[in-house]
Amino acid sequence: MSASTPLLSLKGITKIFPGVRALENVQLDLWPGKVTALIGENGAGKSTLVKVMTGIYQPEEGEILYKAIPIHLPTPESAHKVGITAIHQETVLFDELSVSENIFVGQYLYKGLLKTLDWPAMHRRANEILTRLEVQIDPRATLKTLSIAQRHMVAIARALAFDAQVVILDEPTAALSQHEILEFYHIVERLKQDGKAILFISHKFDEIFELADYYTILRDGVYVSSGAISDITEERMVSMMVGRAISQTYPKVDCTPGETVLEVTDLCHPTEFAHISFRLRKGEILGFYGLVGAGRTELMQALSGVSRPSSGEIRLNGRTMRFHQPADAIRAGIVCVPEERQKQGAIIALPIAQNISLPQLSKLNPNGVLNDAREWRLADEYASRLQVKAFSWRQPVETLSGGNQQKVVIGKWLATQPEVIILDEPTKGIDIGSKAAVHQFMSELVSQGLAVIMVSSELPEVMGMADRIIVMHEGLMVAEYRAGEATAETIVSAASGIGQEAA
Questions:
Q1: Structural domain harbouring 202
Q2: Do 41 and 177 reside in the same domain of the chain?
Q3: pLDDT of residue 503
Q4: What DSSP element (H or E) covers 362?
Q5: Could you read off the pLDDT of 412-455 as tens digits, one per residue?
Q6: Does residue 220 lie within any of the structural domains?
Q7: Do 86 and 192 fall within a single domain?
Q8: Based on the domain organization, do 281 and 196 belong to the same domain?
Q9: Quick one: how far is CA 464 from the chain centroid?
Q10: Are residues 320 and 379 in the same domain?
Q11: Last residue of a domain, one of 242, 272, 293
Q12: DSSP string, 163-229
């Protein structure tokens, strides 16, 4: 095939759902041995386009060409046969099966007249594929024993076992540590060397400019632009993504913190953290930074009643608190927006309005009779302020993009009017426009006197939004900095346990 011919082309793709054109006249070219970044805000149509490419959705208009020949993809199986596979942020694998079984699921190797499973051949072939990727994983290991990064490697190995020629990587690094991300970069280079055409979807601009050769931008389901990554700046890309300039990604409002609202003294947990002490004041954002396994999320769970510390003290407005369950913390005025929004933060089958009103049913319906008007007003206020993109507040949360799901969860807890709100990875998986909206809302909250704890693995976010930064390493507080007091290198060194500085 000519080097000037795309391996896969989508031309004039239009996808219509009842009441909405999800995609309109979208163009996309994928080249062998090259990475194309698919860029757009949450709700721009990226997921819908991937589902068209993998045979889950069929477009109303347009055509798909493979090696310049028109093809029809009526089912996911048809896409697999062509050689198109998608690897998502949450990999679909089987915990109780071995690595080899996961790699060959659906295409097991058999031997003999009785067609018995050829385990030696599968282990050998799996090892060959993993070796080609330069990944050291035992093919006989049970999948549940692997890290998230290793699971991604197994998913990529499975794609190669199916002889995939087009590999779609959908937010593959969202849950990876920095070291694991670097390993992932190496895997992508191996795929390029093997001539695979790669579609890379990420909200992280450093990754896009590191890995991609080409880009395609979507906005509101419409094709905007494409070209060589070397021919565009980050500022221009953002402007084309959102249709406007994002002048301030971290719109932190300078305000003088008030009195102490939360005081934590020598808080310990049997296995997750020890000797945690800090104060949080009204009108302040306190950032917690650390690497995977630092104990930040576990600490937030103790502060919000999900787990119980073994010793130490939590004082809210001068009163000692004993939380036996999250409801105790919520009643006291401490709420937590968890990192895992789909599993812990929302009932995704319910509409937006019901999710936002759920913690306040007794207040909205004091006589035990559901008041739809009150519920609607509450949902409208907070969903609108957070710029949730939806056709109606009756739309089920599961139909929203990841970023908009996160906004609904944040809105649900803000509607309780807490004194302290804990945001655990508040912008994880959210595009840059949505991030700016969440950050703007955080600034509004502190300007109104709310106390905010923000846990984030994105260092620019912590440095841009927090008044103070607490760094954790292996369950301990190892450093504390005021805004502007430390460089990124200093903070990362502390989080890595290098040159630890007592808080």
A1: 8-242
A2: yes
A3: 42
A4: helix 361-364
A5: 888 888 999 999 988 876 777 777 778 888 888 899 889 999 99
A6: yes
A7: yes
A8: no
A9: 19
A10: no
A11: 242
A12: T-SEEEEESTTTT--HHHHHHHHHHHHHHHHTT-EEEEE-S-HHHHHHH-SEEEEEETTEEEEEEEG
179 found inside a domain = yes
For residue 2, tell me if it sits in a domain: no
Task: Give, in order, the Cα–Cα distances in Å from 232 to each of 212, 224, 248, 447, 473.
Answer: 12, 13, 20, 37, 38
93, two tokens? 């694998």
* Residues 321 and 344 occupy one common structural domain: no
Checking DSSP bridges between strand 197-201 and strand 35-39, what pairing results, if any? Answer: parallel
| 148 shares its domain with 62 | yes
CB within 8 Å of 4: residues ≥ 6 apart: none
Phi, psi of 217 (to 5 degrees): -110, 130
Predicted confidence (pLDDT) per residue in 151-188, tens digit: 888 988 888 888 889 999 988 887 677 777 888 898 89
242, 276, 298 - which closes a domain: 242
CB-CB contact of 62 with 31 (8 Å): no
Residues 234 and 263 in one domain: no
Contact of 259 with 279, CB cutoff 8 Å: no
Name, in order, each residue with C-beta under 8 angstroms of 331's C-beta and a sequence gap of 6 or more.
none
211 in a structural domain = yes
Beta-carbon contacts of residue 189 (< 8 Å; ≥ 6 apart):
none
The phi and psi torsions of 30 (rounded to 5 degrees) equal -120, 130
Phi, psi of 139 (to 5 degrees): -60, -20
Q: Buried b vs exposed e over 445-480: b needs ≥16 C-beta within 10 Å? A: bbeebbbbbbbbbbbebbbbbbbbbbbbbebbbbbb
For tokens 């004091």, the residue is: 366
Nearest one of 452, 482, 461 to 470, comparing CA atoms: 482
Nearest CA among 408, 358, 366 for reference residue 383: 408
Tell me: do 402 and 374 sit in the same domain: yes
pTM: 0.62
User: Of 278, 256, 260, nearest to 316 (Cα)?
Assistant: 260
- According to DSSP, the β-strands at 61-66 and 69-71 are antiparallel
Domain count, the chain: 3
CATH classification at residue 473: 3.40.50.300
